Amino acid sequence: MVAGVVPEDAVDDAAAAAWFAGEHSVLLGCVALATQSGHVTHAWQLAWTLMTAFSRRGRCDDLSIALRLALDAGYRANDLTAQAYAHRFLGRVRGLLGLHDEAYDHLQHALDLFERLGDLAGQAAAYIGLAREHELSGRPGPAVEHATQALKLQREMGNRIGEANGLNNLAWCYVGLGDYAQALDCSRQALALQQAIGSRPGEAGTWDTLGYVHHHLDQYAEAASCYDRALQLQRQLDDRYEQAGTLGRLGDTYAAAGNTPSAHGNWYQALAILELHHPDAQQLHARLNSRRRS
Prior knowledge:
mainly alpha; Serine Threonine Protein Phosphatase 5, Tetratricopeptide repeat; 83% helix
């Protein structure tokens, strides 16, 4: 450590989130400086470090800028590892922005590179991303295939966090296939594993998945309860992006159950969180306008 440098002591998630928010522009500048000075590994690893904090606050455009800088640096240095990780993260970010074809291309590039590098963890992450993009694009069959391959790799590596996340992703993909029994089984396995290893972000995501499964089984009270559990954890983590998604789905559940005021309340909360340029905001506007006309 350089003399005179004092590390920040983030005592909890709220303090960490506040630090990232306050240092937002400085952190982006660090990525740019790393690329300009030829520190390619620092560039993509810094961008990776920003993924969770920035995506939770809907800062996907800034993440795209940082990751493209890292990707360009990786190509200039012919650094396959930097290219692979930058493509993987860009796939995730572009998908969050609703640019699914672009996301798919980045993730496929990442998978090809991770296979060349023999990086099993990278391959598993790329498969999960590809499964997500197939699911969002209405291709549940390939989504299940990719999610299953990711889960297989995580188990081969003995990665319990990866296995739990893989089970959760597979559950979501089974919903797209209409196989709710498999979805419920996978999500329950995921939840038990998330709780055993103490992964609060993973547990929050799995409660959200369970809510989605119960909704599709017309079990609206159970769905609402699961969504509430997810929201409790997401608020502790200050994960605004995921809160918005869960609130939107909770609104859908209330609407399906015939509780229009609660549906509107949750949709408005979700809309207040999302930045206006985000594609999910347009979908929520459409839902609210539809309900007003009906």
